[in-house]
Design a protein that fits this description.
8 helices
Length: 179
Amino acid sequence: MKAAWMVVAIVAMSVSAGAGRAAAQGPAGVGATTAAEPTLHAPHSYNPINWVKKNPKTGSDWHDANSEENKKLTAKLQGSGALAAGTNIAQACNTFKMLSDCLAALHASHSLALDFNCVKSDMTGVQTGADMSACKEPKGDKGVSLVKVIQLLKPGADAKGEAKNAERQANEDLKEAGS
């Protein structure tokens, strides 16, 4: 009987201690008060994708024909024959979102003797004002990858290898131009 009273006493003390702790926490639980308080700084993101800062040259960042980088790229590509003499890189690549994609398209169209306007139109999904009657269009109205464009316009070519080579040349051009 003495043991039974002991058990009842221990259980009663535990319940009263737990009730006091629960009352101190409030109805929301541990940490709810500090979470509800306003913070002076933005909370840290737990998504690791947000930790890496990516700054690809997109949109109007690189469409300035007077920038030093674009002048270097224009001169280099005109010298190699990949870009027409009267055109600068900003004019040729105006519908591309990424400069590296445009440079790869220029290199691929030059090395495979493809019409750049066809490659540009197929990759971006934007119709240019040029004569597109000789071009094969991909299904749908969205742009496709360089590999698919090469497969479409030059079926016998090693599309993956040519695209990889063109992308490597584009990356080298960007490094040499200083971006």
